[in-house]
Prior knowledge:
Elements: E1 8-12, H1 20-29, E2 34-40, E3 59-65, E4 68-73, H2 77-88, E5 95-102, H3 114-124, E6 129-134, H4 147-160, E7 166-172, E8 182-184, E9 190-193, E10 196-200, E11 206-210, E12 213-216, H5 225-230, E13 234-240, H6 249-256
Parallel strand pairs: 1-2, 1-5, 2-4, 5-6, 6-7, 8-13
Antiparallel strand pairs: 3-4, 7-13, 9-12, 10-11
Amino acid sequence: MEKNIRPLILVSNDDSIEANGVHALIDVLVNFGDVVAVCPAHPQSGQSMALTVATPLRITRVEDYKDAKMYKVNGTPVDCIKLAMHTVLDRKPDLVVSGINHGSNASINVIYSGTMGAAFEGCAFGIPAIGFSLTDHSPNADFTPCLPFIHKIVKSVLDNGLPQGVALNVNIPNSIPHPTEMRVTKGCKANWSDEYRKYTDPWGGTFYMLTGKFVNEEPDNTDTDEWCLSHGIVSVVPVALDRTAPSDIDTILNILT
């Protein structure tokens, strides 16, 4: 980085440009560099790394927040990152930060998360990336517990970088008292049960709505993100963009031959 040029930080989320979480995030990030936020125009939870392929995308400048330039896109979080890189920014960002998500993205939720989809897309561009989430789904959640941890983690990553192709999935518990401890850990083994509920519309037709119960398969494992969150500890999980399984190549060869 050239001297006297502030770091460029690209921000996105999946809760929309209007979400309180992204504004709380920007409150911290403007202390570290020049911030550009490119976020979905409408909530995009559960979109993971989905792309818009059959609908024209539009990017619109909206009112700045603090010193951050703000844009909205009628697409997914990954659309936002791609459009930012190709149409908005005049140089490669030093950091991509996504969030603050309204609700946990721990454990298996990382693979569904639009918040983390944006972070993974940052990885795909070779940029250090972080996703932040608070375990409170309320649109009026208090993001105060997140701020010192965002400050610490962002400073460390700007100073030291991250391994290529690795993002950080940071989850912050909505606990009283506010968390004071942070651990680097792993995602717990978990699943969702009873995922869809059946309903009947006024004309007698059947439809389904996503619901479900989160099932932690290892609740007593102290080396997992869910254990940390349930004990008022911030979890930091390194997650890889590469989803291949090289350690299983020989096993698959034996199966196929």
